[in-house]
């Protein structure tokens, strides 16, 4: 299997996450496993739990990151966030890239789950990219509103190449 090159927007997002070797991390919507590969390469004693509602996304991530599954740094589950029971007591980071849940529909239960599991100093990172700035702004505003309603303090970071935005939500 030929592995696709990791897109610049995913590299940027993982750099923003500032993964530490012992972090406990939740990825919501693992897709093709691009972020999982980068994150797991930075972990030593930490672990990444990657979830996706798509069975094909889970399969792609498992194939791409097989060595990290074998090493115990990665677990991948076919499940949605609403029904997830996080297997660790505390998360250092949780993140999602282009996951519609946080700006398209009501997500207070899912945000409450993350809020409860984040360690002191931990954060939820939501990243979005879009072809047009106005679309990106709409996504960011709606997701930010949901985060604030769930009790998070939100800061925003931008990336111009590619056009992307990150919301960093802290307890």
From TrEMBL:
Name the UniProt record assigns to this protein: Methyltransferase domain-containing protein
Superkingdom, taxonomy of origin: Bacteria
Lineage of origin: Bacteria, Bacillati, Actinomycetota, Actinomycetes, Propionibacteriales
Residues of the Methyltransferase domain: 25-122
């Amino acid at each position: 299997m030929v592995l696709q090159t990791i897109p610049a927007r995913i590299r940027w997002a993982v750099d923003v996450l500032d993964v530490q070797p012992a972090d406990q991390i939740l990825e919501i919507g693992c897709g093709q496993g691009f972020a999982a590969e980068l994150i797991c390469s930075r972990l030593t004693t930490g672990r990444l739990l990657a979830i996706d509602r798509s069975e094909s996304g889970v399969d792609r991530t498992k194939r791409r990151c097989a060595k990290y599954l074998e090493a115990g740094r990665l677990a991948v589950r076919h499940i949605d966030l609403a029904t997830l029971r996080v297997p660790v007591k505390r998360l250092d980071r949780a993140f999602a890239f282009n996951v519609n849940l946080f700006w398209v529909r009501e997500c207070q239960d899912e945000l409450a789950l993350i809020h409860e599991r984040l360690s002191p100093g931990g954060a939820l990172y939501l990243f979005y990219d879009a072809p047009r700035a106005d679309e990106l702004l709409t996504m960011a505003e709606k997701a930010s509103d949901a985060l604030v309603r769930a009790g998070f303090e939100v800061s925003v970071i931008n990336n111009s190449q590619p056009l992307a935005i990150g919301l960093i939500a802290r307890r």
